[in-house]
Amino acid sequence: MKINQKKLIIIFLLSFFLMNVSNFFGNNIALAQGEAEGESTGDSETSNTITFTPNVPFGDFTGDIPVDSQILFKYLSAWYGFVVGAVGILATVIIMWGGFKWLTSRGNAAAISDAKDRIWSAIIGLVLVFLSYNLLYLINPRLLTITLPDLKTVAGSHGFVTQSSTLPSTTTQQPGTRQSASDLCQNSSNNVIDYSNVSPRNPGVNFPTEMNGWFDQYGDSYGVDSDMLRAISAAESSGNPRAVSPAGAYGLMQILPSTATAVVARDSNLRNLPEFSDGQISGTELINNPELSVAISASFVSANQSGLGRADIFAGYNAGYGTGSGNALSQSRDCPTPGTRAYTCCTNPGGLIETQGYVNNTMSYYNYYSQ
Description:
By secondary structure, the protein is mainly alpha-helical. The protein folds into 2 domains: 2-45 and 55-144, no CATH class; 168-369, Lysozyme (Orthogonal Bundle), CATH 1.10.530.10. Helix content is 52%, strand content 4%. InterPro entries: Lysozyme-like_dom_sf (IPR023346), T4SS_pilin (IPR043993), Transglyc_AS (IPR000189), Transglycosylase_SLT_dom_1 (IPR008258). GO terms for molecular function: peptidoglycan lytic transglycosylase activity.
């Protein structure tokens, strides 16, 4: 009876062992194929792509390895393969040693029992190591998908380090070109800011070709100046498609999910997108699909820009296009000039001091991009 139980245990463990091996290699083959397809269909690496060369290569983790969101996964996968191989060799040695002790025990019950324990311990340990993949998968499949967030470009005194080709590169802003809203107030007449006098300023964001294509495409489709979209993105997220603000705005254009949902719901060109199949646009969708973020932003501006000047459009994007108190299009009660927007009034901007600075920034960025 005990022998049959041991046979059943061995069969059970071996079946799980084979399932684990097939799942491990099957998933890694699929991953390798997915990466190969991504390399053939995705954006080509730029000359600024950073690579990492390990001093002591091992397994597949060797040569010039691109620093991307998968590098940690590749590193841990290589170590996993190394550990599994080392454990397999060690377990084989222990099993052989246990078998040798059994053969030389000469019928000694204590020696035979010790040999059996060693053999069983080695087999169980070996199976558990190979089962670790399945155990993690059963707990949570996401534990097997290890990715790093996209890394932004780091600007240094000796140039620029582009750590991910999927993000815009940044450059050092030119000194001496920054004007604050208070500077504009000092130079204003009648205490009203004239944003048409804002000097061009480099925001330090150089958008990649793909993003520039989105700005041009959706700018043309919705009748919105594409350089305004660039200026908004530079001011809102510094061109980072994965940005999240404390106020709950997401993505390249920093849109609230509630605003995005409302814009898509009324736009027949966007309403049938798969992202809107549930009637909602989530923050995750805005992050994962920066092109969608640009399209929604262009649609939002297009629906509100009629009859507005460029500064008013920027102000509305920041504070809302309403005319009530606290909104960008509200009228000033403190500046005497008729028709003065509250955010342009230096005496009392009606709680829109932040908007004053925002418009100053976006106007200066727009003037830079449109040069």
